[in-house]
Design a protein that fits this description.
six-stranded antiparallel beta sheet; 8 strands; alpha+beta; decarboxylase; S-adenosylmethionine decarboxylase; lyase; spermidine biosynthesis
Length: about 120
């Protein structure tokens, strides 16, 4: 049942957001974003399985992602607008997706953040 009715049998937490007014230089820095996403994985207490990235043109934005045993973490950037989106979804009581999200935000240094939370758990009556 949705909305947390009954006992939670599967734990899924999803925090995602829009970051405005980020430094375009860091949004173009593939190496820095990979380092940030690896550290965010540790902070979330998730098990890193793989990291990947894709650059959209020589000076364009990036998609950087971590596949973790518990789900995924991703950063998508639009440096020409100083804009990024961040997505952290983890399963399990042992993970802390908000801490990972907050860490990424601290590194991208946006002027404005819109954050959203989704409970993706399963509940049993």
């Amino acid at each position: 049942m949705a909305g947390g009715v009954g006992a939670r049998v599967v734990v899924g937490r999803h925090i995602y957001g829009n970051l405005y007014g980020c430094d375009p230089q860091i949004l173009r820095d593939e190496s820095a974003l990979i380092t940030i996403i690896k550290e965010a994985t540790k902070i979330a207490n998730a098990m890193l399985l793989s990291v990947g990235s894709y650059r959209f043109g020589p000076n364009g934005g990036l998609t950087v992602f971590a596949i973790v045993a518990e789900s995924h973490i991703s950063i998508h950037t639009w440096p020409e607008y100083g804009f990024a989106t961040v997505d952290v979804y983890t399963c399990g009581d042992h993970t802390d997706p908000k801490a990972a999200f907050d860490y990424i935000v601290s590194k991208l240094k946006p002027q404005k953040v819109e954050a959203f939370f989704g409970d993706r758990s399963m509940y049993k009556e």
